[in-house]
Amino acid sequence: MSGTFLGMPGFASGARRRGAAENGNTGADPGFPAFPEAAHTSVHDERLRGNLRHATHTIRDKRARAVAELADWAELREAGRRIKDRTLRHLDRYLLQLEEAVTAAGGTVHWAADAAEANRIVTDLIRETGETEVVKIKSMATQEIGLNEALEAEGIRAYETDLAELIVQLGDDRPSHILVPAIHRNRGEIRDIFRDRMGDWGRAAPEGLTDTPADLAEAARLHLREKFLRAKVAVSGANFMVAETGTLVVVESEGNGRMCLTLPETLISVVGIEKVVPTWRDLEVFLQTLPRSSTAERMNPYTSMWTGTTDGDGPSRFHLVLLDAGRTDTLADATGRQALRCIRCSACLNVCPVYERAGGHAYGSVYPGPIGAILTPQLRGTESEIDASLPYASSLCGACYEVCPVAIDIPEVLVHLRERVAARGGPGHRLERAAIKAAGWVLDRPGVLAAGERLAHRTRALHPGNVPGAGAWTDSRDLPEMPAESFRDWWRKNRT
Predict the structure, then answer these.
(1) Residues near 157 by Cβ (< 8 Å), separated by ≥ 6?
(2) pLDDT < 50: residue spans in the chain
(3) How far, in Å, CA of 168 to CA of 177, rounded?
């Protein structure tokens, strides 16, 4: 799923693509700060906050209108949830059915346990063709595994063809939104990137390029056309895979995907194992909910479907790389596995007050926003400081759950993952557990509690502004002012 909103103002960003972070693995980049530190910087950027607010509010308002057109939206949402849950419960069976159908249709299926194996498979397949360049459709899975960087290390250049991804690539940048990766760039910045960098990657930008959407789109069209006509190999992801027929589905707004899927001789698709759906009837549900939740359209301008290979029509060689990379581990978690329902619509990002203020780069992950806060720590683990901080990148307001077209209870999973992070221990968590244990002992003894309350009230003038050892809480919150007497004493004097 892709979308580009050149008409929206953006904001400058100093974040850059960190190829080493995902080159061959899904681990966090040790050079990137944890969410609290990264967000602390971004929330003080008034221009960033203003433009993010404008962009996300525009998208979510359009989505609300599109969803309101369907009287049975709640039923579609519930149907999507049930289809995804049923598929995940029997994922092994549907994946084997998919492999059999793809193979019978002339395709070849490869299984990749992790990012390194997926990158190695794709690299070897491209080498077999003798080509040194490929065109790519926007794909979260290939971003997740750092495929572009892995190919570059082997002397293979990958050209992004989605307009927003092209902007990110030419700007040596990093995506900041699932649907609109270049949402952090304004039109003036895009014009400058095209003017300064297009010539390094192929056809240069036209002379006198302006920042009007039509001119920018035309510059991208001319730049990409020569690549489409020359490319012999394409790399894609997929929004869905239909197990009963081995059909893959890509939905998009620009037509670049259609060019990649039809013109090259070899097509390699890297897809997470959770993207499978059992039947065409199941697919019909998501073809209604995905476009409305993402681009606020009744249907996508381009919905491309292909099943294996067909003589004289499209690529003559098709390879499907099924990616695990932490998904099986996520599936084993009864609470956390609901994150695998995600259809990458990005609706949760557009309603999230934290994302609106912090922006996508602060998450340090290919998957930003609320869904990234629960998906990334499960795919990568919570060992790094970055990943351990993501479950706390939320106010738990629940807006993300309300708009999710497959009813992922993101707040529930966030709390679940916070518990997992806390269970790992550390000095702060040990102190917290000790404090809770002591509080439990006091609350079980009314007399001790009453004596403690009286002592606290009598000594309130001596209380510190911050509780020792609780700086993470009190640094951003004021302690409540201690009243002159406890409620217990007030009740005794006035109600007895």
Answers:
(1) 132, 133, 134, 151
(2) 2-27
(3) 11
Q: Are residues 315 and 435 in the same domain?
A: no
Distance CA 79, CA 77 (A): 5
Domain count, the chain: 2
CATH of the domain at 181: 3.40.50.10420
| pLDDT given for residue 453 in this prediction | 83
State the amino acid at position 347 in one-letter form: A
Does residue 28 form part of some domain?
yes
pLDDT per residue over 361-385, tens digit each?
A: 999 999 999 999 999 999 999 989 9
404: buried, middle or exposed (CB in 10 Å: 19+, 13-18, 0-12)? buried
pLDDT in tens, 5-26: 343 333 233 333 333 333 344 4
Instruction: Report if residue 417 sits inside a domain.
Output: no
Q: Which of 327, 354, 378 is the last residue of a domain?
A: 327
From CA 156, how far away is CA 491, in angstroms rounded? 77
Q: How far apart are CA 426 and CA 255, in angstroms?
A: 51
Would you say residue 12 lies in a domain? no
Q: What distance in Å separates the CA atoms of residue 496 and residue 494, rounded to the nearest whole number?
A: 6
Claim to verify: residue 134 and residue 275 sit in the same structural domain: yes
Q: Specify the pTM.
A: 0.84
List alpha helices for 295-409, DSSP H. Answer: 327-331, 347-351, 353-358, 369-380, 385-389, 399-403
| Domain coverage including residue 486 | 427-495
Residue 223 to residue 226: CA distance in whole angstroms: 7
Residue 310 corresponds to which tokens in the numbers above? 């067909």
Beta-strand pair 302-307/247-252: antiparallel
Strand partners, 247: 242, 307
* Whether residue 246 sits in one domain with residue 107: yes
